[in-house]
Amino acid sequence: RVLCWLTSVIQGRWSSELLWVSACEYLKLPQQSEAIVIYTGWERHALVGSDIRLSCSFFSWRWTSEDVTFSWSYRPDGARDSISIFHYTGGAPYVDNKGPFRDRLEFVGNPARRDGSILLKNLDYGDNGTFTCDAKNPPDIVGRASSVRLLVFEKVPIQAGVITGAIIGAVLGLLVLIVVIYYLMRFLVARRVFNLSVSKHGRKGKGKEGSQQRQVPALSIGDPSKLKAAASEKKKQESRKDKK
Amino acid sequence: MLLILLGVLILHLVILVLLLISTSVNAWTVSSSITTDLWYNCLTSGGGYHCKVASNEDWIQAVQALMVLSVLFCLLSLVFFLCQLFTLVKGGRFFFTAIFQILASLFVMCGAIIYTVMSPDRAVGVEFGYAYILAWVAFPLCLVSGLIYIILRKRE
């Protein structure tokens, strides 16, 4: 494909509307036929009585043709045969009107956007099984159909490990939060102490050296006992000043 | 002082090893053919091992989380101990180490209690395995170690 594009560029026949896919067709160069790749989910869980949308999409190297077809088939759990429940062809969807999904199936896809999703309504335990989507995009028709398993529950079970991860994450998060708050408080308190000392330093002209000497042991984070002694000493001196 | 420090360090390492073994070894509940732990239920039959993931009920996930957290906190407290050993001022106490160690012991206690209360009924031939006993042994050791850290003061 890259070679096609480069060739077209070199030959000066490239224009902005040309995608490199059609560049090859434009140059009539032989092209490998790549298989079409179909994507559905792997496993879907649903509650009894709810609706579920089974998505089906495909990837193809060609433009989406007008004859694109989607077909869904259903194989119940334990059964060996699958029955066809949905088919889209010639621009029109055909839903199941005789089988197990009569009146419960709706086409909600957009074939032009390569979306062939169907909506199953009012699920029951009997709907457990495998749904297979097969899409064809002529002339790209070689591909493997993709299946999605439907599991219907009364109560959707918690997957193994979710609670474990949640508890561990919550505790570690709390730990980080506590550490952050602790350092924030320390930073704020230190800043407040600094501001107080600066304002005192500015106001009192007398006893400048005295206040300086008193401030130094308070700010240095040394022995906790020394810190307490300095704080209490500062408080005593402050109260003495207030009395004065 | 050096002897005390060495003793405390060795105790801490022993607790860490006990917690690791208890969390990971498959021997919380044993019977003649079935062994279960926090993560798998294994059945020995005909010389082979069949393991399937333990039930995803809420309580076993809580026990898993608590045991993993206790191992993590014990490890963290060890790191903090080594850190504080070199950065703490003379006469200071190993508060951070103590907090983490005590939290680790609380987690082990909660995990062991939940497992004891919620594990399936004791039938004939089914009894608690050594990993479960190790968890119960690790809990008081961890608590004592944490208390030692609170009392311990750094000297020169």
Automatic annotation (TrEMBL), chain A:
InterPro entries tied to this protein: Ig-like_dom (IPR007110), Ig-like_dom_sf (IPR036179), Ig-like_fold (IPR013783), Ig_sub (IPR003599), Ig_V-set (IPR013106), Myelin_P0-rel (IPR000920)
Domain of life according to the entry: Eukaryota
Biased composition (Basic and acidic residues): 231-244
SMART domains, per the entry: IG (SM00409), IGv (SM00406)
Stretch list, region Disordered: 201-244
TM annotation in the entry: 160-184
Ranges where the Ig-like domain occurs: 30-151
Subcellular localization, as worded in the UniProt entry: Membrane
GO cellular component, one term: plasma membrane
UniProt keyword list: Disulfide bond, Glycoprotein, Immunoglobulin domain, Membrane, Signal, Transmembrane, Transmembrane helix
GO biological process: myelination
Membrane topology recorded in Swiss-Prot or TrEMBL: Single-pass type I membrane protein
PANTHER family, sorted: MYELIN P0 RELATED, MYELIN PROTEIN P0
Family to which the UniProt record says this protein belongs: Belongs to the myelin P0 protein family.
Protein name: Ig-like domain-containing protein
Species whose genome carries this gene: Esox lucius
Gene name for this UniProt entry: MPZ
From TrEMBL, chain B:
Protein's membrane topology: Multi-pass membrane protein
A UniProt-annotated Pfam family: PMP22_Claudin
Keywords: Membrane, Signal, Transmembrane, Transmembrane helix
Positions of transmembrane segments: 62-82, 94-118, 130-152
InterPro entries in the record: PMP-22/EMP/MP20-like, PMP22/EMP/MP20/Claudin, PMP22_EMP_MP20
GO annotations of cellular component type: plasma membrane
Subcellular localization(s) per the UniProt record: Membrane
Principal subcellular localization: membrane
Protein family according to the UniProt entry: Belongs to the PMP-22/EMP/MP20 family.
Protein known as: Peripheral myelin protein 22
